[in-house]
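The following record pairs a protein chain with its ligand, pyridoxal-5'-phosphate.
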Amino acid sequence: MEANYTHIQITAAQAAEIAPEHYHIKGEITPLPGELDFNFKIKTDEDSFLLKVSRPDADEQEIAFQEKILAWLATHAQNIISPLVFKDKDGHAISKYQDEHGQTRLVRLLNFIPGRLWSAVNPQNEALLYSLGKEAGKLSTTLQGFEHPLAHRDFPWDVGQAQWTYNYTNLFSDDKLEIIEYFQSLFKEIHEPYQSLRKSVVHSDANDNNVIVSNDLIHPQVKAIIDYGDAIYTQTINDLAIAIAYAVMNKSDVLEASLPIIKAYYQEFPLLEEELEFLYTLVAMRLVISVTKSAINRQLEPDNTYLLISEKPAWQVLEKWKAISEDLAHYSFRAACGFCPHPKEKEFKNWAAKQNISIQSLFPQIEFEELKKVDMSIESTWMGHESEYLNNQFTEYKLQELKSANKNIIVAGGYLETRPFYITDAYKKESNNGPIYRAVHLGTDLWLEAKTAIHAPLDGEVFSIHHNDADKDYGPTLILKHQTEEGLEFYSLYGHLSLNSLNQIKKNQKVKRGELIAWVGNQEENGNWAAHLHFQLMLSMLDYEYDFPGVSTAKELEIWSSICPDSNLLWKEKNLEEALQKDNEQLIKYRKQHLGKSLSLSYDIPLKMVRGAGAFLLDSSGRKYLDTVNNVAHVGHEHERVVKAGQAQMGILNTNSRYLHENINQFAEELLSTFPQELSVVHFVNSGSEANELALRMCRAYSGQKDMIAVEIGYHGNTNGCIEVSSYKFDGKGGKGAPEHTHIVPLPDAYRGLYQGENCGEKYAAHIQEQVDRIQAKGRNVAGFICESIISCGGQIELPEDYLKTAYSAIRKAGGLCISDEVQVGVGRVGKAFWGFQLHDVVPDIVTIGKPIGNGHPLAAVVCTRAVADAFANGMEYFNTFGGNPVSCAIGREVLRVVKDEKLQQNALEVGEYLKSELEVLSKDFPIIGNVRGQGLFLGFELVDENKNPLPEKAAYLANRMKDLGILMSTDGKDVNVLKIKPPMVFSKENAEELIKRLKVIFTEDFMRE
Ligand SMILES: Cc1ncc(COP(=O)(O)O)c(C=O)c1O
C-alpha cells in the first residue's frame, strides 16, 4: 500500500519545477492539505498562488467541470470571493505534467485567497459560525441555474447518494454500528419525500480545510469557500448540512453551534419548512459517509493521514448528534430560520383560545375567590435568602402566611420564571461558552396543600405514570395525552404528586374531563419540594416517556416555550398573565440619563446581577459567574450568618453611637484582638474613603504638618483628601498631577519597576527619605506616609523585603505617622497573617479597614495607637451619623466570627498557594504570563511580551473572554496588563481548578497566542 501512495505523491520539489515551467512563476512553496489533488501555495514577490496537481487517474472532464463552475462564479457571484483561474504559458486553463513515472497529471493555477483555514481558527465563536452560514447561503444562491452534465455523476460524498454506505456496516461494531444504523434508518425513512426536495448544483464540501477565514483574530469572518472538486447536482439543503457537519466539530454543544449557521444561511437562501425536517438526518449522513470512507480508506491507504484526519471529531459529532432528539433539533432549526419553533404552536393557540376551561377544574373541591401570582423568580425578594427558599417548611409557612393575609386565594405562577433553586449541578450543562443552567420554568406551579385531589381538566388518555424519584425531581408524575376535535395531539404533565397517585390510574387508561386523577404529594414523597402541583403542557414528547424537562436554559427558551405553551392559554386567568420585565437596555438608558456620567459599567454588554451566593454572582438570566473580583463579599456573597445578623439587628434597633450599645463595644473588642497591642483604639466609619480621610486628619492633628508621602499608582479613596494622596487618580485620566503637599515615591515593583529583582526594598525605600529631605528643605515636615501592604490598583504589587521597615523608620524619624491601608487586603486575605502589614514585621500607627469587614455592608474602621487617638481628640467632637451603628457592628462582628469559625484565613493560604502554583505552571506553557505574584487570595499575574513590554489588549481580551465562559476577572496596574484575583474567601480548590481550566482555554486562543 505504501509503495502505491509514494508512487502518486507530488513533492514540493516537483511543485517548484512545475510553477516556472508551466506558468513562469517562481516563489516559496508550501504544501497544503487536499483530499484528491496535491496542493501547494506559491508565494512570489508580488502575489500568492495555489498550484493544484491531480492524481494520475484524474478525469480531465471533471476538472473541466470545476473550471466551468469557477467561470460561472466569476460572472454571477455578487459579493462572494471565489478563486480566479490563471492560464498556463500556452493559454490552457488545465495544464499537463508528466511525472517521473510517465503518468500525466492535470495542473491548475489559481489565485491564493489569503486568510486562515477554518480548522486553524480558535475560537470558532458564534459570529464566525454565522459568517460561515452567510457564505454558504450566498454560494447556494449563486449556483442556482448552473448546469453541467458532470454534476449528475455518481459521487460517494454526495449526501443525496448516501445509500451506498448501507453496504459497509460490516466495517463497524458496537456503539459505532449502532450510531451508523440509527442514522441510516432515519435516512431510509425520509427517502421518498427527500427525493422531491428542490435540487441544484452545490459546492458539497465546505469542510474545515475548504473554508477560508479572515486574519482578524478577535472578530474572524469567513471570507471564502474553496475547492469545487466535489460540486454535484443534489438536494440544495445538503450543502448546508455539510457546512454544519464540519463546523460543529469540537464544540461542546453541537446543536447550539449549528444554529447561527442555519440562521445566516436562511437569510441568504430562504429554506422551505419541509427542507428543515430533513436537516438533522442529512448532517449525520454526511458524517456517516465520512466515517465509512475513512474505514474503507484505512484499509486502502494507511499512510494517507488526510483521509483519516476528520474521523475522530466526526465520531464525536455523530455521538452527540444522536443524543439530541430529532424533533428538538428540527424545532431549533425552525426557530433559527424565524419559523414558529413548534410547527403546531399556532394551531394549538388557536384551539386553546376557543376553550372555556376553568383552572378550578383541576381541583374542584377547593373554594377560592382569587388567584394570586407569587414571584419565585431569581430577582424576587419574597424568595429571600438561599437558606430560606431551599427550606420546604419555611416556603410552606410563607405560602400559608400569604394565604392567611389574603382570604380565599390560590397561589400560583411560574411560567417562564427564571428561578434560583434550579441553579445547581443537577441543572447544569456545558454550552459552547462555559456552564449554563436550565433555570427557566416551563410549567405553572399551583401551591396547593398536600393531599389536594387533582382532576382531569380535559379528556385524555394516560401516556405514562411514573415515580421520578431522584432528589429534586418530579416525584410521582402523570402525563396525559389529549387530542383536539381537529386531531391535534398534545400532552399535560402533573408533577410532585403523592405516592398513592401511582395506584390511582394506569397507563393507556382513558380519562374523562372532571375525573379524579391524582393527589398533591408532600415533601417526603414529591421529590423534596414544598407541596404543590406542577402543571405543564407539551405539544410533543420528544424522546421522553415518564419525564419531561420542566425547565430550559435562557438561551433555548424560544424553542422550549414553543414546545411547552403557557397553560394559562387554557385558564385565561388575568393574574397569571406574564408581567413585562424591564430589559437591560431600559436600565442602561435610565442610568445614562439620570445617574452620574462618571459612574462606569463593567463589560461591553453590561450584566445585571440579581443574586450572590458564596463565590458566585447570578445574573437575571440565571447565568452563574464565578467571581474572582469581589473581595468585598469577603466571607462569601450573601453569607447566611452575616445576612441574618444584619436582618436581626435591623429588626430591633439602629441608631447612632451616642447611646450605649453592646454591639459597638463587642465589635471593637473582637476587632482589636486581631491587632498588636499598640493598636488599641478604633473609630468606626462607613467606607474605605472615610477611613483614610480620618487617618489623614489624624496625621495632620498628630504632627501639625500637612505633607503626605504616598506611592505611585496608589488609590486610597474618593474624598477630596483621599484623591489628593491617590496617584492612581491624579496621575490618571482627568487628573491634574500631585498637589503641593503630596509627594509621590516610585511604585516598588520588583518585576518591571525602577529597581528589579530581589533586595530592591531598601533602594525603593530610599526614595521616601529623599522626599522627607525635600519636604524639610522647604522648611516644612512630613505628616505621614500612606501605603497598602500589597498594592492593589498598582497591579497586585507585593512590597519588597524591608521596604516598609525602612520607610516607616524614615517617616517616624521625621515625626510623621505611618498608615497601612488594609482596605483591600485585610481580614485574613493574605493567608499567612490576618493583616497585610504583619507580612513585613512592622506595626503601623494607623490602620484603615474597609471593604471586607462589612461583607458588602458599608462598614469601615480606623484603628490607631492611643497616642494618635489622643492627639486627634483635641476637643472637637468626632460625630459620625452611621459609623458604629448597631446594625453595622452586628454585621462586622459576624464577619470576624465567620472568618474564624470557617477557618477562612487558612483557606486563603491553602487555596491561594495552590492557585499561585497552578498559575506558575500555566506560565511555563504560556510565556506571556510574565509574573505571578501575591499572597493568599490576593493574587495577580502580568501579561508581557518577550521584552517585558506590557500587553494590556491581551489582558482586556482575557478578562472579557473569561466573562463569556462564566468567570469574572478584573484588570489593573500601571499599564492595565495585570489580571487581579481577589475572590470571596470561600473560594475553594474546586473553584481554583475551574479558573485554571478556563484560563487554559482562553490562553490557547489565536489572539492570545499571536
Ligand atoms: C486601597 C484602597 N483604599 C481605599 C479605598 C476606598 O474605599 P471605598 O471605596 O470603600 O471608599 C479603596 C477602594 O477601592 C482601596 O482600594
